Amino acid sequence: MRLRSARFALIATASLYAATAFAQSADEDVEEAPPPGLPGMDIYLAPLTWDEAGAPSLGEFANATDRAGYDNQPFFDRDAAAFFYSAETDDGTTDIFRYDIETGERQAVIVTPGVGEYSPQRPPNAEEHVTVVRQDEEGVQNVYISAPLEAAYTPVLDLDPVGYYAWDESGGAIVMFVLGEPMTLQSFDFDTLETSTVFENPGRSIHALPGGGVMFSAPREDASAAVYSLTVDDGESEYLFDLPGEAQDFALVRNDDGDGLTGAFAADAGALYFLPAGEAEWREVAELSAHGIESATRIAVSADASWIAIVGADAEITEAP
């Protein structure tokens, strides 16, 4: 898959590599603007190994952030050497940081004093850019695409209020969670410049699928959630499976070639579960409390399936913030 030069040229015509505008929705780990105070969260990191049958094993978890405050929404870089994440700063807002797995170094890569950034991602085939949800001084939240360490970027569209998003692997579309009555899942096409509503009342977990399209969650009234696939070309969605228990977040695991899926991870009631591709039953693979992880929410897996990151409640602090 490739990001067409015409599409990227369209984005760059705004003042600096701008992309579609978004606004962050309220949930337990990202508050509706302006946030009254972000919850204390840490990001835990562990190596993943796989047996011949495709079953995962987890190594020892390390608290990668290990400080008081909000650290959330990990997203692995393509080379699996690091992950990006959103971290609370001294002014009570958030900036985007990069955690180097080998060295343990944490580096600020997008810093905008007085405003907040969430949901870092790499857009397709744009090696020097990071997409973020930015909350401005007025509380409006939009998604921007920018080079690291660069703050002067401008949105192309205004779809306020929009929360979560995922890029189609072609780079030709972004699928986004739009806050409203009802909540909607909408897709923006960079070729036609059109936005279409494709699903009502989606969840916050949206992930790109190998070869195109996305997979997303949709909550039910009984606190459970289902997972659907979406084809961005025609806007058609299809039910796939249920998440375990009351889980609302999941992460996909790509196969060795990167063109398909091995399965998915989700966490519920203190346990981590794995669903092999093509199967219907989730398998418990770890008791998270035994690893010091409580109230697990978001999960991220590196593209080569060698690392897993899980967000949990702040642990006892072992080093100064």
Give an overview in words.
With 321 residues, the chain is mostly beta strands. The protein has a single domain, classed as TolB, C-terminal domain (Neuraminidase), CATH 2.120.10.30. 2% of the residues lie in helices and 43% in strands. It has 1 helix and 24 strands. The strands form 6 sheets. Strands 1, 2, 3, 23 and 24 form a 5-stranded antiparallel beta sheet that branches. Strands 4-5-6-7 form a 4-stranded antiparallel beta sheet, with no helix packed on it. Strand 23 (299-301) and strand 24 (307-313) form a beta hairpin. It is globular.
Query: Termini, distance in Å?
Result: 41 Å
* SSE order, one letter for each helix or strand: HEEEEEEEEEEEEEEEEEEEEEEEE
Looking at the overall shape, the CATH architecture is 6 Propeller
What is the highest CATH level, the class?
Mainly Beta
Helix content: under 10%
Domain unit count:
1
Count, helices: 1
Number of strands: 24
Mean pLDDT over all positions: 83
> So what's the overall shape?
globular
Name of the CATH superfamily: TolB, C-terminal domain
Radius of gyration over C-alpha positions, nearest whole angstrom: 18 Å
Largest sheet: 5 strands, antiparallel
